[in-house]
């Protein structure tokens, strides 16, 4: 079935198209052109004051609406995926938390089976798996349970890779740990991107990690060595080096607006990435929830453990896009690319909004508010 859509503007990875006409055949984009005039009666959808963008892509989310991705069962994952789609996310990386090896392997296998089955009509697709742990620093572990942290090992990574049926695409790792550089090298061979996170690495250790193949930094400013004028550490390197990507939780809780502005100035519109680090409490009322084995108290957007340690967020990615615009004054084009094009490029994947690609995109109103999501050609 053919679908035709005309809007005011189309924002792709590398250009802006005025008065774009998109033609879809079922779930696929088959043509994109620009029109001066057309007969609106021939269109399936006519949005003369709205802007079409790529669907959002969250590379760091643990769960939502009372479910964690590590539950692994189809009902939990479908519920999470449908909630994310309602907030403009069309693809995401199911993100683990540090747990026992047996539990982690079982969760990875369950997620792999769900990915193989494919998403339902209104469900955001799991594009791969992000392992956050077990190769994290005790000094910067945050809420990750210390008794399940492991020294980085290519052998352990191989075990996790096999359990996931090759679905792991991103790994957060503390590069200063013994065995980390060898594990990063093995990840590179497997096609897994590596990100520095939950790390106390100094400048030289960070530089060695970049040379070994690290391409990004996980929830920048959080769970990493603080910036020092004589020992810049991770933050100094990440904010200074043009080639490294940097993701950030833009909820106004994890990072102050002043530092969000500094981050965007330093990384620019090409290397900054928005994430949520969302927990099962996302979309739920204030209360007590869990992330892995850890109790998390949620109160008005603050998620803390019994010890008062920050533990993820209840942020949605569409709200992160709105927040970064509010905090920095950037335009919708930039904000959306931080949550769609940039994570795809960090992973080495092609732009999702292209001829021949799936018809996954969002529609924003004149004030930059999300008003529609099309998921594989279906208007939600």
Write the layout of secondary structure elements.
Layout: E1 2-11, E2 16-18, E3 20-25, E4 28-34, E5 45-54, E6 56-61, E7 63-64, E8 67-68, H1 74-85, E9 89-95, H2 101-117, E10 125-132, H3 154-163, E11 168-173, H4 180-190, E12 193-196, H5 203-212, E13 214-217, H6 233-240, E14 246-249, H7 257-271, E15 272-275, E16 287-291, E17 294-299, E18 302-304, H8 317-328, H9 332-338, H10 341-346, E19 361-364, E20 370-375, E21 378-379
Parallel strand pairs: 1-5, 6-9, 9-10, 10-11, 11-12, 12-13, 14-15
Antiparallel strand pairs: 1-2, 1-3, 3-4, 5-19, 7-8, 16-17, 17-18, 19-20, 20-21
Helix pairs in contact: 3-4, 5-6, 8-9
Key terms for this structure?
10 helices, 6-stranded parallel sheet, alpha/beta, Urease, subunit C, domain 1, 8-stranded mixed sheet, 380 residues, 2 domains
Describe this structure in words.
- The chain has two domains: 2-53 and 356-379, Urease, subunit C, domain 1, CATH 2.30.40; 56-346, Metal-dependent hydrolases (TIM Barrel).
- It is built from ten helices and 21 strands.
- The protein has helices at 74-85, 101-117, 154-163, 180-190, 203-212, 233-240, 257-271, 317-328, 332-338, 341-346, and strands spanning 2-11, 16-18, 20-25, 28-34, 45-54, 56-61, 63-64, 67-68, 89-95, 125-132, 168-173, 193-196, 214-217, 246-249, 272-275, 287-291, 294-299, 302-304, 361-364, 370-375, 378-379.
- The strands form five sheets. Strands 1, 2, 3, 4, 5, 19, 20 and 21 form an eight-stranded mixed sheet that branches. A six-stranded parallel sheet has the order 6-9-10-11-12-13. Strands 16-17-18 form a three-stranded antiparallel sheet, with no helix packed on it.
- A hairpin with a 2-residue loop joins strand 20 and strand 21.
- The protein starts with a strand and ends with a strand.
- The model has no long low-confidence stretch (mean pLDDT 96).
